[in-house]
Design a protein that fits this description.
Keywords: Coiled coil, Lipid transport, Lipid-binding, Membrane, Phosphoprotein, Transport. Residues 258-274, 333-344 have a biased composition (Polar residues). InterPro entries: OSBP_sf, Oxysterol-bd, Oxysterol-bd_CS, PH-like_dom_sf, PH_domain. The structure is a single chain. With 758 residues, this protein is an alpha+beta fold. It contains 13 helices and 31 strands. Helix 3 runs antiparallel to helix 4, helix 8 packs antiparallel against helix 9 and helix 11 (670-676) runs antiparallel to helix 12. The longest helix has 74 residues, at 179-252. Residues 1-9, 119-129, 255-296, 308-325 and 337-347 have low confidence and may be disordered.
Amino acid sequence: GGGGPAGGPPAAPPGSDTYKGWLFKWTNYLKGYQRRWFVLSNGLLSYYRTQAEMAHTCRGTINLSTAHIDTEDSCNIVLSNGGRTYHLKANSEVERQRWVTALELAKAKAIRMRNNQSDDSGDEEPASQSDKSELHGPLKTLSSKLEDLSTCNELIAKHGAALQRSLSELESLRLPADSGEKIKAVNERATLFRITSNAMINACRDFLDLAESHSRKWQRLLQHEREQRIRLEETIEQLAKQHNSLERACRGAPGLASGTTSISSTAKAGSVQSAKGEASDEDEETEYFDAMEDAPAFITVTADPKHHRRSGSNLSGASEGHPEDWNLEDSVFESSNQSSYNESTGKDLLPRKRRRSRIPDKPNYSLNLWSIMKNCIGKELSKIPMPVNFNEPLSMLQRLTEDLEYHELLDKAVKCESSTEQMCFVAAFSVSSYSTTVHRTAKPFNPLLGETYELDRLEELGFRSLCEQVSHHPPAAAHHVYSRRGWTLWQEITIASKFRGKYLSIMPLGAIHLEFHSSGNHYVWRKVTSTVHNIIVGKLWIDQSGEIEIVNHKSKDKCQLKFTPYSYFSRDVPRKVTGVVTDADGKAHYVMSGTWDEKMECSKIVHSSHGSTSTEGKQKTVYQTLSPKILWRKYPLPENAENMYFFSELALTLNEPEERVAPTDSRLRPDQRLMESGRWDEANVEKQRLEEKQRAVRRRREAEAVEALEEGEEYEGYIPLWFERKVDAVTGELICVYKGGYWEAKDKQDWSVCPDIF
């Protein structure tokens, strides 16, 4: 605590301006209470990991003027301020009382200082959102009082002029007989003037009282905003300094040695503390995960595969696994880090065709973004005519096909004998589809109705893919992929997007289906929400957030993945993804962890137990795992990618011209081809022509529908070329599935069914 074994007596007695000392602060269920150096100064309680950190790194600060101070038992202190709560523990009741006294005195002094600065003698709470909302009422009242004063001023001027005339007439009188009436008139005018003057004085008094009572509130609001701004500036400056220090330390570090962190059990249920004593919160290798919404919280602890059953462990036998199952020599995980799958299983395939590795550099065209976007707020993005300046030279069908960049994950999943092990690869594949989006803030072209895109890599990579735009409003694309290596993937995706002024939300709707031919395992999942930030001001950046639930409808295995949204003040790794693979009985087998822009790892669970209940009322589960294995790692971007729309190697080839494709293929779209060539002005003209042509076709269909309705006939509307709508047997949803015929038509070069859309 403030003294004793925790680190000596406090640096100053209670009541002084500054109070320092050691206290134990609750960190998390893995490490429990950790010793921290606390400094109480100017109504702020700050803490540091060590005394030396006071010069450069503050771990947290709480404002006592609005904080609630509570004592749980003889040694504990609880400080809460809004959403922030500190659970502190002193060594003894005496030390606890010293700190409480110092905190209470500092809180009272902070409140007095705040009130004095705002010239307010009351003990009101600091300015809040409710105070700001109350400003409208006083302003309305003040306006009314000003109108009263204006009216009184007009009356004074009017009656004053009349009084002057009466007095002038009185002076010009010669006959005493008229003096009585004139004097009476003067008295009446003077009375009216007095009444009006009194009314004006009263109105002025009311105005002054009201202005005086609310000026203090306005001053307090202004002072609060200034303090908030200063605090934010100091925080940002401190973060910038820490960032620079970390960068310098990173560049100068010779490398980190790997090691194993030993952990020991504690008497507190659900709490595991470090055996290193003074080990920091951030530096420990033992990784833990917070709870996902609608899922039990869990913590992972890396175990020794040879000695994972330690006698001193407090982990119960709620779930057992065998480390010998994690044998990489016999496991399909062995090949998960290979850069090319062809080396091990692709000997029967033809050599890869040499394809292009660059496209023309992106032109540097200036554009007044606000003049275009200000009329788009709240509208559906797919219905807004946008210049190609916001696009990248790929269509949405090609972006959908780009999800197959890491198709080798599914090729490896075919070889898995265990359905839960196979689930790990499917989960890694579902995350890998977002890796290309981290720098890709440009908008793909909206496909025209009936537009298609094929990617035939059957001879090189073992799969062929076909996409078709099957609906225009709402925009929907159907996708079908067949792999001769033992899997088939299909989906119908509808993109819903909303522009909200500062950010753009993109919500993919529809399920993704994946079936393995030999086992019959059928996986279904849905995509998360993508958000593009800083649409108007600042540098564009994209984030993924939400949850993906992958379900194997044959074995009932599940994987719940959580995409943690980015937070500037979060200590989590940016773009973090975590999850757990469970079987049909709910038993956890693997822990998934990584980031959606870099890699995904899988850790086999060998032991699990239920810990204590968290503060949110959810039960913590502790998973003891073996060392993680990397399932997927992102390929590096090509050289000069920043000038080529940050395209990956696959993306650079997607719009490469190919022979024998359908006349509706995205590669043949003229505006997209012109944009890729850097001829953006011509591309904009061509884009408007294509959109007007599509609108004319839609108007003709609407007219045909009205005519059919008048004649009492049924109008079918647009019928997809290569897909048909069926009720999915697994999800029960109406979905477009491939009906066949495209590849046969390509072999025959018979495209007679294709419409003229370009």
